[in-house]
Amino acid sequence: MHRPIDASVAEHRERVFGQLRTLAEEEVSAPMLPEHLGGPNDNGANVAAFEELVVADPSLQIKAGVQWGLFTSAIVRLGDEEQEKAWVPGAMNLETPGAFAMTEIGHGSDVQSLATTATFDPEGGEDGEWVINTPFRAAWKDYLGNAAIHARAATVFARLITNGVDHGVHCFYVPVRDAQGNLLPGVQSEDDGEKGGLNGIDNGRLAFDHVRVPRRNLLNRYGDVAADGTYSSPIDSPGRRFFTMIGTLVQGRVSLDGSAIRASQLAPHIAITYATQRRQFTAADPTRETVLMDYQAHLHRLSPKLAATYAGAFAHEQARCTPSTTCSPAAATPPRAARTSRPSPRRSSRPPPGSPWTPSRSAARPAAAPASWPRTSSSGSTRTSTCTRPSRATTRSCCSWSPSGRCRTTPPS
To answer: Were both Cys, which of 48, 49, 54, 82 would link to 61 (CB 3.0–4.6 Å)?
Structure first.
């Protein structure tokens, strides 16, 4: 699986594409598919398999991520069931290599400001067509994996315009090349060429000169247009609709984070293994040389890297096991209101000299506030209300507590 050191860019690209076909034959990304498409809908397994590909070749890992984690995932998460059945099988078995056309030269992370347009023409085709257009150079789609050579289609993010109204950015399925790899009429492409790394990926640019696609090529889970040009959406707010669409793609970001962590784990593993085996100079033992890891300078260089890798791995596991990313709700961290909490022991700020603090030294702890606190009403009578100290298991309390442990607001009647 590892690439030859002396491979040219063209050779590396073809090698990685051949490896991608092998992954498709082995159905490596099949766990991502929902049940109605014949898959187990096991996103956790899919992400775990994806992260391991970086060990073989980072170019292969990113190319697989573009094909299945972005291009195919956009169809699955933004299209309806009919669109999924039409386009997902070809994307999964690599009959339709694809590109994910979101980023533009003039707009990167600011997706809401993309300039590519998709204008609805009710007179085109059988029941209307979309006219995909790149209005100026800064609106070219750039840095797209698969775009330079292999992509046959692209999920294109463009501004949906119908009846003269701009309804914001939506996603469209747009064929870009024929079966022989020739660009379709109106589609332009450029090769990003050799890069500092990941040269097994054919990154490139795409532009569209009034390219027409059928009305049904709008991935319409969160917004659709009827044959007469009427726009409809289950989400009324344009802002909320946009962030809902983008939020469905967050799994790809988490996957990339996991891949970076996996690569980071390999580096200190190699370095520390070498440092615990390689010996140099007889400093401490005249009959045996000292391993590199016993030298403080070497240890101090590697230890922070190891700690950062552990921290990154823990943070990634936390991000991965949330309902909005990859894990099932049952495996995700429960909501705060559903957790049980235990108050952590409060130790004295001045433990006895020479004696470590232990939980048995109850005298060093402040007294707990009573469950019931007497309060005096405006009429002068005293009444007792039950107040609970706020904890992680409660979302609201009948009173707030001062640092000294007293209830400082009047409980409700």
So the answer is: 54
Strand 382-386 to strand 372-376: parallel, antiparallel, or no bridges (unpaired)?
A: antiparallel
Token duo for residue 122: 């009710």
d(CA 254, CA 268): 22
In tens, the pLDDT along 84-106 reads: 999 999 999 999 999 999 999 99
Q: Is 242:56 a contact under the CB 8 Å cutoff?
A: no
373 bridge partner residues: 385
Q: What is the pLDDT of residue 60?
A: 93
Cα-atom radius of gyration of the chain, to the nearest Å?
30
The residue assigned the tokens 């996996």 is 262
**pLDDT tens, residue by residue, 36-76:** 998 998 887 888 888 888 888 899 999 999 999 999 999 99
C-alpha 214 chain-centroid distance: 30
CA pair distance 30, 93, nearest whole angstrom? 10
Minimum mean pLDDT range among 7-16, 157-166, 347-356: 347-356
Q: Tokens 């009427």 sit at which residue?
A: 230
> Could you tell me the CA-to-CA distances from 211 to 118, 126, 163, 185, 205 in Å, in that order?
9, 16, 19, 7, 16
State the chain's mean pLDDT as an integer: 80
Tell me how crowded residue 70 is: count the other CB atoms within 10 A of its CB.
Answer: 22
Element (H, E) at 251: helix 250-275
383, two tokens: 């009444």
CB within 8 A of 394, min separation 6: which ones? Answer: 337, 388
**DSSP-assigned beta bridge partners for residue 172:** 156, 218
- Return all residues near 400 (Cβ < 8 A) that are at least 6 apart: 390, 407, 408, 409
| CB 78, CB 84: distance < 8 Å | no
Token digits for 381?
Answer: 């009578």
Report residue 310 as tokens.
């552990």
Alpha helices in 155-249 (DSSP H): 238-247
Choice between 156 and 257, residue whose per-residue pLDDT is larger: 156
How many percent of the chain have pLDDT more than 70? 76
Cα separation, 101 vs 107, in Å, equals 12
